[in-house]
Amino acid sequence: MNKSHNGSPRISVIMPVYNGAGFIRQSLPPLAAMLERKEIIELLIVDDGSTDDSVEIARAMQARILSTNGRLGPGAARNLAAGLAEGDVLWFIDADVVVHDDAARIIGAEFANNELDAVFGSYDNQPPAENFLSQYKNLVHHFYHQQAKKNASTFWSGCGAIRKKTFLAVGGFDVETFKHPSIEDIELGYRVCAAGGRIHLLTELQCTHLKVWRFVNLVHTEFFRRALPWSRLIIQRSGLINDLNVGARERVKALIAALFVFVLIAAVFGILPIWSLGLAFAVVTAANWDLALCFFRRQGVLFALGGLLYHQIYYLYSSAAFAWALLEHHLFAGTPSNP
Predict the structure, then answer these.
(1) Same structural domain for residues 119 and 205?
(2) Given this model, what pLDDT does residue 5 score?
(3) Which residue range is the domain that position 286 belongs to?
(4) In terms of domains, do 120 and 184 share one?
């Protein structure tokens, strides 16, 4: 493997951009600084058919501009750049992600000191968007990634790096199955592990997520772009894993969420006494205590209560997605194309 003068791998940053001018004004400066410090060897921006001034902004920050010549999606954009990158490690970063200043050094040290194929990190616990769902979504991501095992079985392209030879050997992102941004990074991680590769989740590798989540785009993304295709992937190929938000404890919590909703409905209609609802919520709180503490420490008691209640809704639609995927698998002996 080619390495830089200090023994660290040569890192190429790859960022797909589609009309991301508002994001890359914030996400590119720390990467340009890393390029100046020679912590990375190149900054590749893949324009995916932008109609704003994303390309001009990126070019002004010393980025190398590539183009998909039309709207192909981030997976195809990453694949294009991977084949042209000069580094032996490909560091994928989303346009709405601002990496911390030490990120390149963390990645370089991990690859230099370990025989592994890929690493990824997590969002930090300080998302700038102040609305409830943006805080909730980003804090949940931070919580699960910070609690997960270091030896991972998935990958994350929001802030994840992989050896170029490994990426090319497994065929890159599957953009035929996942025609829209979805779980193509998770599926890539499964293929890397199936080929005998090793992936590390680095809790110290953190970044700030700029995305603003609203109810409609959050539920649509969580159900159609995450839960449903991930359920199909689990059923078809990988089987259940005991990690992140599909682990054994999470499956128990999903059952508790369903029981809580049952008790809520029964209490509202007088089938069960009202005190049973308090008991059910106490069970929910106990089961999700660590997450509730994460919410509380960041945003206080009211946010913690709201986040805990919304998280039960998350468990319901995630469980519904898995049930639907299981039903279609048995009824149709296959899986339709992901939406």
Answers:
(1) yes
(2) 45
(3) 244-332
(4) yes
**Residue 333: which pLDDT band, with cuts at 50, 70 and 90?**
low
Q: How far apart are CA 336 and CA 229, in angstroms?
A: 10
**What is the spatial distance between Cα 288 and Cα 39, in angstroms, rounded to a whole number?**
40
Sole residue written with tokens 């499964």: 190
Are residues 174 and 188 in contact, defined by beta-carbon separation less than 8 angstroms? yes
> pLDDT tens for residues 26-60?
999 999 999 999 999 999 999 999 999 999 999 99
Is 237 domain-assigned?
Answer: no
- Within a 10 A sphere around the Cβ of 56, how many other Cβ atoms? 11
Quick check: pTM over 0.85? yes
Q: Which two tokens stand for residue 148?
A: 């997960």
Of 213, 232, 252, the position where a domain reaches its end is 213
Cα–Cα distance, 20 to 36 (Å, whole number): 23
> What single-letter amino acid sits at 9?
P
**Amino acid letter, 40:** I
Distance, CA of 159 to CA of 171 (rounded, Å): 20
Do 209 and 92 sit in the same domain of this protein? yes
Judge contact between 30 and 92, C-beta under 8 A. no
209: tokens are: 């997520």
Q: Is residue 160 in some structural domain?
A: yes
pLDDT digits over 153-171, tens only?
A: 999 999 999 999 999 999 9
**Residue 51 belongs to a domain with what CATH number?**
3.90.550.10
Asked if 94 and 165 sit in the same domain, the reply is yes
Distance of alpha carbon 125 from the chain centroid: 14
Phi, psi of 68 (to 5 degrees): -85, -5
Q: CA 326 to CA 323: how far, in whole Å?
A: 5
Are residues 145 and 38 located together in one domain of the fold? Answer: yes
Cα–Cα distance, 106 to 101 (Å, whole number): 10
Contacts of 105 (CB under 8 A, 6+ apart): 39
Contact status, residue 189 vs residue 118, Cβ threshold 8 Å: yes
Mark whether 83 and 175 lie in a shared domain: yes
Pairing mode, if any, of strands 199-209 and 97-99?
antiparallel
